[in-house]
Amino acid sequence: MTKVEELKKQLERGKVYRRSDLAKWSKSVDRHLDVLLKEDTLQKLSQGLYYFPEETTFGQTPPEDEVLVRSFLKDDRFLLTSPNAYNSLGVGTTQLYNQRIVYNHKRHGEFKLGNKKFSFRVKPHFPKKVTQEFLIVDLVNNLETLAEDQKEVLKNLSAKVRLMDAEKIQESVMEYGNAKTKKIFESLLSSK
Description:
By secondary structure, the chain is an alpha+beta fold. The chain has two domains: 3-63; 66-190, no CATH class. Helices cover 41% and strands 20% of the residues. The protein has eight helices and nine strands. It has helices at residues 3-10, 19-23, 29-38, 65-73, 132-141, 150-162, 166-176, 179-190, and strands at 15-18, 43-46, 49-52, 54-56, 59-61, 78-81, 100-104, 109-113, 116-122. The strands form three sheets. A four-stranded mixed beta sheet has the order 6-7-9-8, covered by helices on one side. A three-stranded antiparallel beta sheet has the order 1-3-2. Helix 5 (132-141) crosses helix 7. The longest helix has 13 residues, at 150-162. The chain starts with a helix and ends with a helix.
């Protein structure tokens, strides 16, 4: 069995690998990576990041976003979201965005991983999973970047806030809201 075949035996389909992960199974990792890329066993996602695709009847599947981001960051502490999530709130946002946002503690900037673009934003605080309260606060934090009519969205948001648990919203505002968002919610919550 060749060294490349030995390395292949260590790989799991659907998994994303860093070069450093592969180096523990190969003394000539760069040469072996070249072979694996040329024979289409691995796909290069970005500098030092590789994917061993799963095979389906429809062909190879891309890596799941969470797996990709986890490998890129070398960290489980992140929140993957999109401005499209705001549409579920029912406050007048209807645009579809081709953007994935990753709140994390390590990286900031736009990164292309495989054929997907991610906007990494360093934040001191974010929840483990998206909640309605977090989404409302995040919407107001990012309102100026959206294509919607801001006044209309805020008017609809005011009505939405009246139907929600004020205490949970207040906690979310204090934890995740920027200064401008805190000011907006101060007036929204006082009119409740």
